[in-house]
């Protein structure tokens, strides 16, 4: 079974905290590259330890589950 980015309890995404920390780091001004690189390594370690194969966003999952054809 392939693990995706959601934990067994469905409340906290697997490695979600690490991913969010990294995303917030890159938005900060001034940009602290060393800090962001440490957070990137932390996220990488987490996905390797948890065997995460793919991340997805909640609205992305909804769009895939309920595709709507908006082509004219």
Task: Please tag this protein with its features.
single chain; 72 residues; mainly alpha; two-stranded parallel ribbon; 2 strands
Question: Can you walk through the features of this model?
Answer:
This protein is mostly helical. The chain is 53% helix and 7% strand. The chain is built from three helices and two strands. A two-stranded parallel ribbon has the order 1-2. Helix 1 (16-27) runs antiparallel to helix 2. The longest helix is centred in the middle third of the chain and has 18 residues, at 33-50. The radius of gyration is 15 Å and the shape is flat. The protein starts with a strand and ends in a 7-residue tail after the last helix. 7% of the residues are buried. The model has no long low-confidence stretch (mean pLDDT 82).
| Contiguous uncertain segments of 5+ residues | none
Query: How many DSSP-defined strands?
Result: 2
How much is the average pLDDT? 82
H and E string:
EHHEH
**Helicity level, as a percent range?**
40-55%
How much of the polypeptide forms β-strand, as a percent range?
A: 5-15%
The structure class reads mainly alpha
Distance between the termini: 39 Å
Rg, rounded, reads 15 Å
The helix tally amounts to 3
Widest beta sheet: strand line-up: 1-2
For the sheet with most strands, the description reads: 2 strands, parallel
Overall geometry comes to: flat
Give a short summary of the structure.
By secondary structure, the chain is mainly alpha-helical.
Write the layout of secondary structure elements.
Blueprint lengths: L2 E2 L11 H12 L5 H18 L1 E3 L3 H8 L7
Parallel strand pairs: 1-2
Helix pairs in contact: 1-2
């Amino acid at each position: 079974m392939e693990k995706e980015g959601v934990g067994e309890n469905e409340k906290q995404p697997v490695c979600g905290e690490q991913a969010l920390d990294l995303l917030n780091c890159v938005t900060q001004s001034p940009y602290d590259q060393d800090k962001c690189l440490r957070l990137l390594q932390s996220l990488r370690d987490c996905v390797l330890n948890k065997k995460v194969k793919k991340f997805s966003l909640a609205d992305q999952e909804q769009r895939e589950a309920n595709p709507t054809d908006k082509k004219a």
